[in-house]
Specification:
CATH architecture: Up-down Bundle
Largest sheet: none
CATH superfamily: Chorismate mutase
Order of helices and strands: HHH
Shape: elongated
CATH class: Mainly Alpha
Distance between the termini: 60 Å
Radius of gyration: 18 Å
Number of strands: 0
Structural class: mainly alpha
Helix content: over 70%
């Protein structure tokens, strides 16, 4: 790789690192909200709402297309995020 390309690569990587830091803060906010939602659930079976998941994924696909983002990327991200939060809720569910 040429020195010029290497310099450009480093600049882009710094931009990605900065964006990752912003994403971490958003994930923290999302986790706090999910924790609040979990406190409202009285039964473990309430953790997975397949209808809501389907609506979320459909909305993400539509928003992705509208914003010219490959919907396969966003779909995979959201499916993984939903799965991670379902796991989080199951691990943190407390019977009342």
């Amino acid at each position: 790789m040429s020195p010029n390309k290497k310099k450009r690569l480093n600049i882009l990587r710094k931009k990605l690192d900065s964006l990752d830091n912003k994403l971490i803060k958003l994930i923290k906010q999302r986790t706090n909200i999910v924790s609040d939602v979990l406190k409202l659930k009285t039964h473990k079976y309430e953790i997975v709402d397949k209808k809501r998941i389907s609506i979320i994924l459909k909305n993400i696909k539509n928003k992705s297309i509208k914003n010219k983002i490959d919907p396969k990327i966003t779909s995979r991200i959201w499916k993984n995020m939903i799965s991670a939060y379902i796991d989080f809720e199951r691990r943190n569910f407390k019977k009342k």
